[in-house]
Amino acid sequence: MADQRTDSGDNYILNRDWRAVARLHHRHMLFRIVRGYNLHPKVTLESGARIADIGAGTCIWPIDIVGELQYPVTVDAIDISMAQCPPPSWLPQNIRLITHDVYQPFPIHMQGVYDLVHVQNWLCIWRNETSENLIRNLLSLLKPGGFIQWSEQNPKANRLIVAPDVSCSTQATQDVLKFLNAPRQTIDFEWVSRLGEYLDVQARLVAFDRFGSSNEHQQLWSVEVLQACEEFASNLERKAQSNGDIERAAELRSSAEKAAVEMLNGVGIYSELVVAVAQKDSTKPVQHDS
C-alpha cells in the first residue's frame, strides 16, 4: 500500500515526508528573506479580503500572511494533497484547507470571489502544454481587479560560485549542476524566465522582479538546492523502475553529500528568485467555467 504521506498518485517527483516539510519551510523563509516581503508592494488588499494560496504545501505562507497583516483576511489553502499540512485544529480559524487539482476547472462557487491568488514553488508541477489552461483556472478565481502573485526559483540562472579566498574542489557541486541542468521530457524550466509573459496574456502584468542570491544568503540557497536533490534521489529510489534509476539516485545522493562538504568550504550554487504580479481586468465581468 502506498504511503499517503509521501504518495498521492499525482506523479509528484519530490516527497511529502517530514524532510520535505522541513525543506519547504526552509524555502519559505529563504523566499521571504530574499524578497523582503510576503505580499508584494503592488498588491493592494482591504479588510475582509479573500485569498487563495495555490499549492499550499505545508500551509506556511497562509499561516505567515494572516499573522503579518494588520487587518482580517481569509485564506483558502488549496492543494492536490494535504499530506504536508498541519491538522486543521492547529491552523488559525481564518485558514481553510481545500483539496483540488488546479489543472481542472474550479467549482463555480469558487470562481470570481478572491482578491488575491498566491502561487509559488511550481517548478516540478508546471507543464508547458497545459500552461494556458492552468493560468486560466487560476485567474478564474479572481474578482475583477484582483491580483495574482507568483514567486519561483529560476533553475536557468543556477551556476557555480566560489568565495574568492577559497581553494578547494568544486567537482561535486558541478556534478549537481549538471544533473539540475539536464534536459527533461516533461519539464522545461525556461517558463520561469517568461512567467511575466504567460500572465500578461490573460491579465495585466504590474511587476516582474528578479532577486539574485547575495553572498550573505548563499548558504541558504545552496542548502535548499541540495535538500531538493536528496529528496529527488529518495523519490527516484522509491519509484525505481530499473537498475538505472537506482544508480542515478545513488550518484545524485553521493554528489549532493560531497557538494555539502564543498559548500561548508565556500563553494555554492548561485540562484535567482523571480516574482511576477498581474492584475485581472477590473471592467471585465466574471465568466464562470464549468
What features would you describe in this structure?
36% of the residues lie in helices and 21% in strands. It is α/β, with parallel strands linked by helices. The strands form two sheets. A seven-stranded mixed β-sheet has the order 3-2-1-4-5-9-7, with helices on both faces. Strands 6-8 form a two-stranded antiparallel sheet. The N terminus is likely disordered.
Key traits:
290 residues; alpha/beta; 8 helices
Approximate strand percentage: 15-25%
- Radius of gyration equals 19 Å
**Span between termini:** 34 Å
How do the strands of the widest beta sheet line up side by side?
3-2-1-4-5-9-7
Task: Determine the mean pLDDT.
Answer: 88
DSSP, total strands: 9
Largest sheet: 7 strands, mixed
Tell me the number of helical segments per DSSP (H or I, 4 or more residues long). Answer: 8
How would you describe the shape?
Answer: globular
Which stretches are low in confidence, meaning pLDDT under 50 for 5 or more residues running? 1-9
Order of helices and strands: HEHEEEHEEHHHEHHEE
Instruction: Give the % helix.
Output: 25-40%
Structural class: alpha/beta
